[in-house]
Specification:
By secondary structure, this protein is α+β, with helices and mostly antiparallel strands. Strand 20 and strand 21 (317-319) form a beta hairpin. Helix 1 (13-28) runs parallel beside helix 9 (335-353). The chain is globular and about 65 Å long.
Amino acid sequence: MDGIDILIVGAGPAGLAAGIRAKQAAKDAGRELAVAVVDKAPVPGNHVLSGAAFEPAVLDDLLPGWRQVRHAFTDTMVAVEREDMMFLRRKGANRIPPAVVPSRMHHTGDVVISASRLAQFLAEQAAKVGVELYHGYTARSLIVEDGALRGVRLAEVGLRADGTPKANHIPAEEVRAPITILADGTNGVLSRAFAQQFGAAAQPQTLSLGMKAIVQFAERSPFGNNRVMHTLGYPMPPSVFGGGFLYSLGEKTVAVGLILGLDWKYGDLNPQREFETFRAHPYISRLLKGGVVVATGAKTIPEGGLASIGTLSAPGGMVVGDGAGFVNMEKIKGIHYALRSGMCAAETAVAALGDGGAPGPLDGYRERLEAAGVLADMRHARNYRQAFEKGGLFLGTPLSLVSALIPKQLGHHHDGAATKRGARLNRPDPGRMDGATFVALTGTIHREDEPSHIAIKDPARCASCQDDYASACTNFCPGQVYRWDGDKIVLSPSNCLHCMTCTVKCPTLNIDWVPPEGGEGPHYKQL
C-alpha cells in the first residue's frame, strides 16, 4: 500500500462516502489522487449495523441517480408512510398522539434501509470511481510523528495463542499517507487514540447498546409494510434510557430492536435478555407472530452529543462518523451524519493537498461541518440525552422537550461509573432465544488459536466485582465473552461481536480491547 494520498480507516458509510467524495473532488479539480480504504471486515458491510431509518437526501448529493441503480440495497429500501410511537405497559400498549411527538422525531420522507447493504452498495460505487479497497486489514494504532498523524500500523497476522509466529506470519506493517481519515466507528480504538493525542472532549462519551434482529415471514407480516414504530416504557425500568423499534423491510421482513443506555445501574442487567423480554411483550409478539429470526447483531451508539465530541482535525488527520460522535438522539439518527461528515472530510483533504507537497491545514473540516448543518444539529441536541440521565424516563421526557433551550451544557458521567454496588434488576428469563443462539445468528467467526484481543487488566479486581456488581461483564456482554470458571473469569474471544461494550461498561474499567487480526468478527449481511 504505497503511494497513498488519502488513507481512510473503516469501510462503513462514513469512510466509503469519504473515499467516493475524495475521488470526485480530485476529478473536479483536474487531479489524480490515490485514495485507499482499509477495513478489518472480510467483505463490505460485515461489521456495519444500524436501525435504520435514513434521511436519503445526503445520498442524492453524493451519488446523483443512485435510486435508479439495481442493488440489494435499493431493492430492499422501504419508504416510510406510517409511523407510530407507543408506550408499553407490562401487558398493554398506548399510542402516543403524533402531535405530542417532537417534530425532529418524525420520519416523514425517510426510508428504512439495511445499513450493511448500504455499505455494500457504497463499496461498489467507491470501486467504480477508483477507490482502492483493502478488506481484512486491521489498523491497530496510529503513527504520530512531529505532532502530526502520518498513518496507521496494521495488526500482526498469523500468531499462535502464545504469541509465537506461525508459518503464515506477517509482521505489523505501516501504511502511511499525507492525510488519514479515521472512520473506525463507535468507540473506535483509533478515534479514541486520536482524541487522547490531539485533544479529548469536554465530557466522556456516553453510549447505548443496540440489539437487533431480522424477522422473516412466509406471508405478509402482521406489522405491515412502509411502517416504523418506536416504543418507550416496558421492559426498561424508568431509570434506564432507551426504547424499542420495529421497522418494515418489505412485506415479509421486519427489523426489530431494543436500545439501552449503558449508564444503567444494575450489575445483573443482561441486554440480550431484555431484548427477548421486549419481543415477548403481548403487543410486540402479536406484530411478530409467525416470523422467524434469521439474523441478529449488536452495536454501541455514541449519544453524548456536542460536549462529547473531541478534536475533529489535527495535522495530517480527521475523524468522521460515529467515531467522532456524530449521532443525534433527538432524531434517533446517525447514518446521514456519517455520510455528510465523510464528504466534508474528503473535500477538506483534497483542498489541503493542493498541488502536491506537504498538506495544508485541515481547519476547513469544521467549517464544512457547520455549513452542512451537522454541528448545528448536534448543538440543538446537546442536552437531549443528558436530560434523561438527570431525570429518568418520567422527568427526563418533559425536560428533553425543552433541552435545546437550556443555555448551560448539562454534564454526564462515564457509563461504567453508573453501575451501583448491590443494584440488581432480577429479571426472570423469558424463556425465548438464548444467548448462544443470538451469537450464532450474528455469524461471528474468529480463529480459535490466535492471541486473545480481549484482556482483563487486573484479574484480582474481578473477585470483588462478583459481590459488588454481580459480575457485570458476564451479563452486559451480548456475545457471552465472559463467564466464571471456578474462581476466575474465563474469556471466549471467538464470540466477540466487536461492539466494545466491555471497554466502557466494566464498573472498574478493567478490560482492554483491541481489534483482532483482519477478516474476523460478525458477518452482518442485512442488518
